[in-house]
Design goal:
Blueprint lengths: L14 H13 L6 H16 L9 H7 L3 E4 L2 H11 L7 E5 L4 H9 L3 E5 L16 H7 L4 E4 L11 H10 L13 H13 L3 E5 L7 E4 L2 E4 L6 E5 L12 E5 L7 H12 L31 H35 L2 E2 L3 E2 L2 E2 L5 E4 L5 H13 L25 H7 L2 E4 L7 H19 L1
Parallel strand pairs: 2-3, 2-4, 4-5, 5-8
Antiparallel strand pairs: 1-9, 6-7, 6-12, 8-9, 10-13, 11-12, 13-14
Length: 439
């Protein structure tokens, strides 16, 4: 077969996104403005309904969907602000799976918390094969200092949140809520912790916009399940704004969504009480600085890309599903394990194609990646377990399942610019390379 160049994960940008960015540039609003607010409303509507065509311009829709999603500069910013609004601080512990990307843990470190890693299930979840936390180990890890758990919907596959919530409910007796009303942030954090009354479930759903799972007797979209959720819109994700991300949260009794949303705005814009849009009115220049906070806002240029991506998003998800079905069939024929993205109780966002080659070691895995590259196919590894990294101790001995999962995993290219023939080429090259490496 003639050699092809198959890139790993380029963005799918159409003329619609380009035109919207041009219009944003011409509009005079290129920082946080009307497009960012519209994207927030449309994402909120999508998470609630599963539809991307909800009209968010009507008065009713503006009331219903405003101040339910906060668009930010990155998923890491979203995760950090989720934790800061929850009041996570020095002395607290945050539980993180050993098998994830650094942002899952670094956001907690930024808040001064201690990260406590938990190993994954042996060979991943029994049905999806996703490297999901060992929930028995999770339950044992919860103690008096635990304030949050960060499950990871890796590859777009949704964690077993019913199991996670059962665990944190059983552990309510360990939880000691914050009681500090000395400033606006601490006051809100204290009231949130007291209202939740248990360890918070703060989902890292960087890969999972559009995924859903049965929860509480009905199918719910990711973003409406965990207490707080972060999404990534980085260039390699299914849905992109080049960089960027978003936070969302489940409604809380006695705390208005608008109060939580306004705190996200303060935290993401230096603690400034008015953003540029709010100061546009006649004589509306004056503002206050509520706290010495951060600069994590999304721009209207980024939101312009997102608005048109959202128009196309269901089609993008459907195409990814078609491509994965081709990969799955070929992997089954080769005897290669792969993620299972769709189950009776769960639909993935089809973000990553992780495969595991039985009977190989790390050296052979790396040789496969090199030989695939020589044939024009870019592959990757998701992920090197965090305890193997210098920043997190460089010792994975306490997390054998995470290390075992990692040693023979390869991520195949998966994006909506791939043709059917590209997938056939990747699979043929993989078959040839496996035969060569296995001898």
């Amino acid at each position: 077969m003639e050699k092809r160049i198959v890139r790993f994960s380029p963005p799918d940008i159409s003329d619609k996104e380009i035109s919207e960015v041009v219009e944003a540039l011409r509009s005079g609003w290129i920082t946080t403005g009307p497009r960012t607010k519209m994207l927030e409303r449309r994402l909120a509507a999508y998470i609630e309904t599963g539809r991307t065509d909800v009209d968010c311009t009507t008065e009713e829709a503006i009331v219903r969907h405003s101040k339910r999603v906060a668009c930010l500069s990155s998923a890491t910013a979203a995760e950090e602000l989720n934790l800061r609004i929850l009041g996570i601080a020095p002395g607290d512990e945050v539980i993180v799976p050993a098998y994830t990307y650094t942002a899952t843990a670094s956001a907690a470190v930024h808040c001064g918390a201690r990260v406590k890693f938990v190993d994954i299930q042996k060979d991943g979840d029994a049905f999806s094969h996703m490297p999901e936390m060992d929930y028995d180990a999770l339950e044992r890890a919860i103690g008096p200092k635990t304030k949050a758990i960060i499950p990871v919907d890796l590859g777009g596959i949704v964690c077993d949140y019913e199991r996670i919530f059962e665990i944190v409910e059983r552990k309510r007796c360990f939880f000691h809520p914050l009681n500090d009303h000395s400033n606006p942030l601490s006051d809100l954090s204290s009231r949130i912790q007291q209202t939740i009354g248990r360890v918070a479930v703060v989902s890292d759903s960087a890969h999972a916009l559009g995924a859903g799972r049965d929860f509480g007797g009905q199918r719910k979209m990711v973003g409406a399940i965990a207490d707080f959720t972060s999404f990534s819109f980085h260039v390699v994700k299914n849905f992109t704004t080049a960089e960027g991300g978003a936070s969302t949260w489940r409604p809380l009794e006695e705390i208005e969504n608008s109060e939580i949303y306004e705190m996200f705005q303060l935290l993401s814009l230096h603690g400034q009480s008015k953003d540029a849009l709010a100061k546009e009115g006649l004589g509306a220049w004056e503002y206050d600085i509520i706290g010495p906070w951060y600069k994590y806002n999304m721009t209207d240029i980024m939101a312009a890309i997102g608005l048109r991506q959202l128009d196309r998003y269901q089609g993008l998800l459907n195409r990814r599903m078609q491509l994965l079905a081709m990969y799955d069939k070929a992997c089954d024929q080769m005897g290669v394990s792969h993620l299972v993205h769709h189950l009776d109780n769960m639909d993935s966002s089809n973000h990553l194609c992780l495969i595991r080659v039985p009977g190989i070691d790390i050296e052979q895995r790396n040789k496969i990646i090199k030989k695939m590259s020589e044939r024009g196919v870019a592959t990757n590894v998701h992920f090197k377990p965090l305890p193997m990294m210098t920043a997190y101790g460089k010792d994975c001995s306490a997390y054998p399942n995470a290390y075992d999962y990692y040693h023979n995993v390869i991520t195949l290219p998966l994006h909506t610019l791939l043709s059917d023939d590209d997938i056939k080429y990747v699979c043929e090259m993989l078959s040839d390379v496996l035969n060569e490496v296995r001898g």
